[in-house]
């Protein structure tokens, strides 16, 4: 393996968890998420000479992962994949949240019931620990829209968690 | 501006840590990149050295093609010339034979005094 390939492999190893997690938490299915994440790195390989720094690469990966995962979700919805349309189902969950699942998995399942734009913004906020201003810059989205997605997303998620997760149920 | 998080948001952050990618993920990505290389490697044809080599090959093919065509035309010309010469030889032989026959036919008349007087 030549130097360029070794350097690129190091980039993949450094960011694979981040990109795969974004894809998985937006698409909601491990196989599809892996395919999306691989496509994102292939796209990065083609675009690498245009990216100037590690921060630039990280921001690029976050943005492209969100967009490609949302595209994959739309394609699955167009094919009539029920899981991809789960978020349209209001407060209901097609896949029941099982008590024995780790809390992380149960929260991920609740996240899948939110509209994709809210999922992306919530992931950038809570998985990637970005401030709303940084999310607005990375996603090229008005700050007011980011705040609105965050506010509504957290409110919905909190309500769903209180209804379905014993850790968050009232009383 | 750093926004304050309530308890629920803090728990979200805690439970939404990045997951590990599936085992062999980096290997799969590198294999796909390697797999794409042959398709992309056709770009080397546009490098100057290869471009000049392609021009040289085309020029050589054009010259060789021209020489081959010229050779074929020369062979065809030779063959046509030989056929014309053969035809002329046959014609010459035939004319000689006719001449000889005519001469033979005229000789007995002269010998027997049968000359034709064409004077008025």
Report on this model:
The complex is a heterodimer of chains A (171) and B (120). Chain A is built from 7 helices and no strands. Chain A is mainly α and 171 residues long. Chain A has one domain: Butyryl-CoA Dehydrogenase, subunit A, domain 3 (Up-down Bundle), CATH 1.20.140. The relative contact order of chain A is 0.11. Chain B is rod-shaped, with a radius of gyration of 49 Å. The chains are: A mainly alpha (171), B mainly alpha (120). Chains A and B meet through helix 1, helix 2, helix 4, helix 5 and helix 7 of A and helix 1 and helix 2 of B.
Considering the chains and any ligands shown, give keywords for the structure.
heterodimer, A: about 170 residues, mainly alpha, Butyryl-CoA Dehydrogenase, subunit A, domain 3, about 0% strand, globular, B: about 120 residues, 3 helices
Task: Briefly characterize the structure.
The complex is a heterodimer of chains A (171) and B (120). Chain A has seven helices and no strands.
Terminal Cα span of chain B: 144 Å
How many H/I helical runs of chain B?
3
Head-to-tail CA distance between termini of chain A: 60 Å
Low-confidence regions of chain B: none
Largest sheet of chain B: none
Order of secondary-structure elements of chain A: HHHHHHH
CATH architecture name of chain A: Up-down Bundle
Principal-axes shape call of chain A: globular
Question: What's the helix and strand layout?
Answer:
The complex is a heterodimer of chains A (171) and B (120).
Chain A: H1 3-27, H2 30-47, H3 54-78, H4 103-111, H5 116-127, H6 132-138, H7 143-164
Chain B: H1 7-15, H2 25-40, H3 48-111
């Amino acid at each position: 393996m030549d130097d360029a390939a070794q350097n690129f492999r190091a980039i993949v190893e450094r960011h694979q968890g981040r990109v795969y997690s974004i894809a998985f938490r937006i698409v909601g299915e491990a196989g599809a998420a892996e395919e999306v994440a691989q496509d994102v790195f292939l796209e990065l390989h083609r675009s690498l000479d245009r990216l100037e720094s590690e921060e630039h690469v990280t921001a690029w990966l976050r943005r492209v992962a969100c967009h490609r995962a949302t595209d994959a979700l739309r394609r699955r919805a167009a094919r009539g994949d029920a899981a991809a349309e789960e978020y349209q189902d209001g407060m209901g969950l097609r896949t029941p949240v099982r008590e024995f699942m780790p809390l992380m998995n149960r929260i991920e399942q609740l996240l899948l019931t939110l509209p994709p734009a809210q999922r992306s913004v919530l992931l950038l906020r809570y998985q990637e620990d970005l401030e709303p201003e940084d999310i607005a810059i990375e996603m090229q989205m008005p700050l007011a829209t980011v705040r609105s997605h965050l506010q509504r997303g957290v409110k919905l998620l909190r309500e769903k968690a209180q209804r379905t997760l014993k850790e968050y149920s009232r009383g | 501006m750093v926004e304050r998080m309530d308890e629920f948001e803090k728990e979200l952050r805690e439970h939404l840590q990045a997951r590990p990618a599936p085992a062999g993920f980096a290997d799969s990505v590198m294999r796909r990149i390697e797999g794409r290389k042959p398709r992309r490697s056709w770009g080397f044809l546009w490098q100057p050295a290869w471009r000049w080599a392609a021009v040289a090959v085309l020029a050589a093919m054009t010259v060789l093609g021209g020489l081959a065509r010229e050779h074929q035309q020369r062979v065809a010309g030779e063959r046509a010339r030989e056929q014309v010469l053969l035809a002329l030889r046959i014609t010459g032989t035939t004319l000689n034979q006719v001449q000889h026959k005519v001469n033979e036919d005229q000789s007995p008349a002269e010998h027997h005094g049968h000359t034709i007087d064409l004077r008025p």
